[in-house]
């Protein structure tokens, strides 16, 4: 059996007939090759894709952010900055403990640490709250001097 005509000087090759493929009946149950073990607690946790970077523990991330806040505040008031930095480890541990007990608290902290919409809301809120607190003498007005004078709202009378 050939599919094409032989070219000049070639001989034809006959292929042997093949046996038909054995197909199981459609109502036969599929073969099971291996048994699945009972699901464990580890199987129910979501798995990270291979090669994904692991995030540090929540307590470590909170402590790092508090230390950064302490350094930033220390630029304006050294005593306050040192107080924040000194209390950061214990406060981070306490917040991590709260996150372990409350899924809602963990979600809030993770959102704040992710730098997403939560951080934007906090930053925008601080931009409103700090000038008000300074206006009423609740925080030193010198803290806001580094940020520059407040901008007038568009359309506001001069």
Notes on the structure:
The chain is mainly alpha-helical. Helix content is 52%, strand content 0%. The protein has six helices and no strands. The longest helix has 24 residues. The mean pLDDT is 75.
How is the topology of this model organized?
Layout lengths: L40 H4 L13 H19 L1 H24 L1 H12 L2 H19 L6 H4 L13
Q: What is the overall shape? A: elongated
Helix and strand sequence: HHHHHH
Q: Helix count, per DSSP?
A: 6
Total strands: the figure is 0
> In which range does the helix fraction lie?
40-55%
Strand content: under 5%
* SS content category: mainly alpha
Instruction: Report, as a whole number of angstroms, the end-to-end distance.
Output: 98 Å
| Mean of residue pLDDT values | 75
Q: Major sheet, described briefly? A: none
Radius of gyration: 35 Å
Poorly predicted residue ranges? none
